[in-house]
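Example protein
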Amino acid sequence: MRRALLAWLVRALALALLPPASADVIFRVPEVLVRPISGTRSVGIGPSNVSRANDSERWSEPDVVVQYEEYYVEHDVSTADARKAAALLNLEDIQATRVGCGVCSQREMEYCETRVLADHCCCERQFLPEPFPWLPHTCYVGPHRCRPLAHDCVRYVRLRDCCCYKKLAERWKSILSKSSRVSVGGVSLLLLSMLLFVAHL
């Protein structure tokens, strides 16, 4: 009994420590099209609203057509790869701003918080050098051409380099270094608790 329990615990620990399998994810977004009703209906509060004017009259139901748009992974940066890149990142080498950038407005800084990654996925595909190797993300591509939230890719690049890059680099280096310590501590705690449990048996 103890051997079977110990074997089960070792198997569970091995599965927990294995990295998750990575594969392109394809998902489908439904678009529902409702065609107008072809028949006529009486509208009002008269007697014709209670019953049909003609019993042979058929009330046609709307035709509902569901179409799907498929999206696939164009490129991604896994958490493990981002953690490695963050470890090599030297924040002192990154300038706070570049020549000709000027001061970034509050609105531009909010863009860095909420929209820059969406525009990165729209403007920079996998054949270009990855500007955010230390930021875990997945970019999807669909059948239609995307429109940058910054209105065009030239403006996105300016905002990325002038306002967002240093701020995001500092934040994600901090986040990934903390999460690395937590995950190592969590695995150590799991191993210690399992050993204590087995010793108790």
Observations:
- The beta strands are 27-34, 64-77, 137-141.
- The radius of gyration is 28 Å.
- The chain has one domain: 2-200.
